[in-house]
Amino acid sequence: MKASYIDITGLKVFARVGVAEAERRIGNRFEISARLHYDASEAMRTDDIGAALNYADVTRVIVGECASEAMLIENLAWRIRQTVAAAFPQITAGSLTVTKLHPPIPAPTPTVSFTCEW
Fold it and tell me: Could you tell me the pTM of the whole model?
């Protein structure tokens, strides 16, 4: 098999992330998506949840990391990546996108996103 991964797409969270102190105090809505690479061959063959990457557990870790304040979406993405990688060592690579749904900018921009890959 060439690759296997699981996608968590469009996870809606509330976080206190922003350069302005008021943004961190009030908070904002975010959307987080992740593509997490791992060897799923045993899970596919055996139908055993213990051999799979449990996306419900990954989602809980992501939501938990959003409880801490940050100034930058880049920092939030890095913290999520670090925490997920530490909690799930079977993840060998991935990408993570953090999207601020209502950025405080004076232009008709619907969203602003940051993506990191490892």
Answer: 0.92
Helix (H) or strand (E) holding 95: strand 93-100
Exposed, middle or buried by CB within 10 Å (0-12, 13-18, 19+), for 70? buried
* Selected catalytic residue, list 28, 70, 76, 100: 100
Indicate the helix (H) or strand (E) that contains 8. strand 5-15
Provide CB contacts within 8 A for 107, sequence distance 6+. none
Q: Catalytic residue at 100?
A: yes
For residue range 15-56, list pLDDT tens digits in order: 999 999 999 999 999 999 999 999 999 999 999 999 999 999
**Alpha-carbon distance values, 61 to 88, 104, 116 (Å):** 10, 27, 17
Q: Is the dihedral of CA 10, 13, 17, 23 positive or negative?
A: positive
CB of 33 closer than 8 Å to CB of 96: yes
